[in-house]
Specification:
single chain, alpha+beta, 2 helices, 50% helix, 25% strand, globular
Length: 68
């Protein structure tokens, strides 16, 4: 999937407006890093750092939402 600046802005907005607030409900932090070669880079922090549920959050919440 090729991307452009509009796609990156749309994904960044989705992370900031939808996903980050969900992660923050449990004390975590989700930050947009960027989009390169069709790969979105995000950073988890706060309560997510070292949390055993981190993988589940990514695989069952973040990834499906970004793909949609």
């Amino acid at each position: 999937m090729a991307h452009d600046d509009a796609t990156a802005r749309q994904l960044q907005s989705h992370v900031a407006d939808v996903l980050a607030p969900l992660v923050a409900l449990d004390g975590g932090r989700l930050e947009w890093v960027g989009l390169s070669d069709d790969v979105a880079s995000l950073r988890l922090g706060g309560a997510c750092r070292g949390c055993p549920g981190q993988r589940t959050t990514l695989e069952e919440v973040v990834l499906p939402s970004l793909r949609a």
